[in-house]
Amino acid sequence: MWQKLKNFSRKDPLIFVLAIIVIVVGATFGGLEAMHMTSTDTFCKTCHAEQRVGVRGEHFTWDKNIHSKADVSCLDCHGDPGIIGYLDAHVIAGTKSLLYQIFVSEEKIVELLTHAATDPVAAEHAAPDSACLFCHSDDVNQKLRREKLISVGIHFRNIDEVKNPTYRTSYGLASITGEPVTKGVEPNHAKHISAGLLCTNCHIGVAHGGELYNKPKMQTCFDCHDTVREKVQTVPANEDCAACHTMQKGLQEGTYVKGVDEMRWYMADLSCSDCHDSAFERPNSDKCVMCHDDSYASIMTDTQEAFAERLAEVKGKYAQLFSEREDMPMGKRALFNEYARIIRIAEMDGSKGVHNPDYLDALFTRALELTEAIDTWTAPVAEEAAAPMVQKAAAEEAPAAPAFAGNPAELMEIASAMEIINIAEKYVPEPTKPAVNFEHLAHAQKMACTECHSDPESGVLKFEVGEIKGMKNDFHEKLCIDCHTKQRVKKTCNTCHK
Ligand code: HEC
Ligand code: HEC
Ligand code: HEC
Ligand code: HEC
Ligand code: HEC
Ligand code: HEC
Ligand code: HEC
Ligand code: HEC
Ligand code: HEC
Ligand code: HEC
Ligand code: HEC
């Protein structure tokens, strides 16, 4: 449509400009319908329509971004909150754009847009911080709601209806002016904002980077910190990884997610630089064998493979639940947010499981519990009852397995004769790990002999034991770790090798 108008405008600019003035004036003085029509993302698309990442491709990139998935539209960001901000963005900026579109060369327009896309100050001019903070903070939202006329009963933009804390908590997000981020690198927003930084100093590309989620770049942090460090002592050293990577640190300490048992990584005592040669270095398995024997290279790749499999399993229902999210009642949505957060944490950590395999595994188990709780969710009497629902769902599921009544006495007698068995003695000629002293009797008291033996009386195992070497050995894969995973029993290395 616009292309036609454009051609028309070239043929007869005067009539075209007159037509525009009529439209603009009409819209300003009561043409609400026209206002609505010219507020939609589809309208903006008439001129910002390229199907690629870059200037003129803003609709394309917005469409891929998390904000569009949450119904945050162009004018929610591009304009101050409130009626005045809306009219300003709509009429003044809109008219300017129209005139530029008609009278200014494409080259010049691209130059203007490129400036707005790369310079933090120009970017803030295009998308003011007040809009971001209206949605992402409680205090600014409440302050602006007190001080400004936000709406007059007519729905202009989604932002008109945003009331915090309700709005942001419905998405499981933090109030950034007062709280730490819910996941990822912790910048301490409050300090940077009071130091005068704009959102775009770190979040440039937040809606138009071309991805679903746009993460700030580490280089941006370092560039500025390097220049201000001398004057401001509180700026962390670039080598102080954990000052920013609180999430990675929290995962390694096994304390990052409430409601999941703490589980410290066996290498939590190492410093980040023991594996990461520099901030921009991703270690590969060569690193592992610098401290361990060769078999540890495959421990790293095995860990990452297992992580990828579990992540895929846990994400199985994600797309479907995500699409239903906007319609979920609050209690159910809180469960979804918790589930979504775990997935984001696992992905954002970036080590693909290496940083604390057992803890990440426990997080996935928790995420699966949450999907069940979401499925079986029914409106509780009071919304607050949502949290106990999860435990209830988990508790209901546990007794489903019939209680084990015990092995026959004659078999127990056999097992009693072998209380502890040193498995390595028989099967591992060249151990690289402390031998496993298997608590045979303790297991026999809790489960059927046939869980492990095809013939308990003579003690024949239910699988044939091959060569025991490295992580992919028969005891791990066919017996011990397989069952411990299913039954959610501890499986850090020193649970068995001690
Ligand atoms: C008639 C074509 C046209 C339409 C329709 C249009 N724009 Fe633009 N837009 C332009 C042109 C041309 C520019 C560059 C000149 C300027 O900065 O105004 C521009 C610039 C912008 C900028 C950068 C402004 C700055 O400060 O540098 C933003 C943001 C923007 N448009 C958003 C929108 C939104 C949101 C809509 C829908 C409500 C929209 N545009 C609809 C043509 C258009
Ligand atoms: C109308 C409200 C609204 C406005 C305005 C808004 N956002 Fe958002 N933003 C959201 C919502 C809702 C989400 C979360 C969607 C989700 O997680 O499903 C979000 C997500 C984000 C995220 C990603 C969080 C994550 O999980 O990684 C960042 C970063 C962000 N916004 C920054 C900004 C910035 C910067 C601005 C201003 C340019 C802005 N937002 C404007 C509502 C808004
Ligand atoms: C000093 C850099 C910096 C500045 C300035 C900054 N942010 Fe952030 N912001 C970050 C980092 C880093 C994250 C963590 C995300 C990650 O690891 O990818 C983040 C996360 C967020 C999130 C996600 C919060 C959550 O609960 O997970 C939102 C929303 C957000 N920022 C909005 C804003 C807004 C709005 C502004 C402007 C008022 C702003 N940020 C200014 C660096 C910054
Ligand atoms: C979450 C807030 C947000 C939403 C929603 C959003 N933008 Fe933007 N937009 C920004 C920010 C921030 C910038 C500054 C440059 C940057 O970060 O990419 C910007 C820059 C722009 C620019 C000028 C610079 C450039 O990259 O060309 C245009 C034009 C623009 N947006 C158009 C749109 C249109 C059209 C839509 C809707 C289809 C939209 N924006 C939706 C935040 C948003
Ligand atoms: C434009 C400059 C600038 C940029 C960009 C910047 N910072 Fe900072 N940062 C500062 C200043 C200034 C301080 C000191 C603030 C203070 O102590 O009041 C600081 C302090 C910090 C602190 C210490 C806060 C505390 O609790 O004492 C952390 C952590 C931090 N920055 C993280 C980040 C991250 C992460 C990024 C990149 C996403 C980033 N910064 C980008 C200027 C910047
Ligand atoms: C000033 C804050 C800050 C410090 C200090 C810092 N990082 Fe980062 N780091 C970031 C941000 C921001 C990102 C990008 C966002 C993300 O990945 O969530 C990042 C990303 C990374 C990445 C991903 C790859 C990349 O190139 O973006 C690695 C690896 C990394 N950091 C390792 C380290 C290590 C190791 C150290 C210590 C030597 C360190 N970082 C120190 C803020 C910091
Ligand atoms: C035992 C070695 C080891 C230690 C210690 C370690 N890491 Fe890693 N880290 C890795 C490995 C391996 C990867 C995954 C590299 C890959 O496969 O791309 C990784 C990945 C990362 C990534 C993600 C890179 C990306 O591309 O997104 C970040 C960020 C990171 N580590 C930060 C840290 C921080 C911060 C610390 C200290 C608190 C730390 N690491 C300690 C081994 C280690
Ligand atoms: C800087 C030396 C160093 C590097 C590099 C290193 N580790 Fe470790 N690793 C250790 C230390 C120290 C322990 C703790 C030993 C203990 O508690 O007995 C450990 C423990 C372990 C354990 C559990 C206990 C054991 O001995 O089996 C595993 C598994 C492991 N590392 C795997 C890896 C993998 C995989 C990598 C590569 C991503 C790696 N390590 C890189 C030093 C290192
Ligand atoms: C959790 C697994 C597990 C359970 C349950 C279990 N066992 Fe065992 N049992 C083992 C393992 C492992 C060995 C050592 C394998 C070997 O020596 O070949 C073993 C060894 C034995 C042996 C000696 C075999 C030999 O070749 O020396 C006998 C006999 C035996 N078990 C009987 C029983 C009986 C009877 C029960 C039930 C009351 C039982 N076990 C329950 C795992 C189990
Ligand atoms: C059929 C399931 C099953 C198999 C096979 C199995 N286990 Fe277990 N194991 C369990 C259960 C269940 C517990 C937890 C018992 C409890 O909570 O008291 C446990 C507990 C343990 C513990 C104590 C853990 C702690 O929390 O301190 C160790 C050590 C152990 N097993 C080692 C092994 C070894 C070694 C093997 C292989 C030879 C093995 N298990 C095979 C089910 C199994
Ligand atoms: C649930 C019990 C259990 C857990 C947990 C466990 N193992 Fe094992 N592992 C065994 C058993 C049983 C054997 C065979 C007997 C032996 O080696 O003592 C074995 C054998 C091995 C072997 C081959 C024999 C050798 O000494 O070289 C390696 C290597 C090994 N394990 C590494 C690990 C590492 C690394 C971890 C942690 C990531 C781990 N195991 C966790 C039970 C376990």
TrEMBL record:
Domain Tetrahaem cytochrome, residue spans: 219-293
Domain of life: Bacteria
GO cellular component: cell envelope
Subcellular location: Cell envelope
Chaperone found in the keyword field: no
Entry protein name: Cytochrome C
Keyword list, A-Z: Electron transport, Heme, Iron, Metal-binding, Signal, Transport
Organism this protein belongs to: Geovibrio thiophilus
Record domain NapC/NirT cytochrome c N-terminal: where: 14-145
Cofactors, names only: heme c
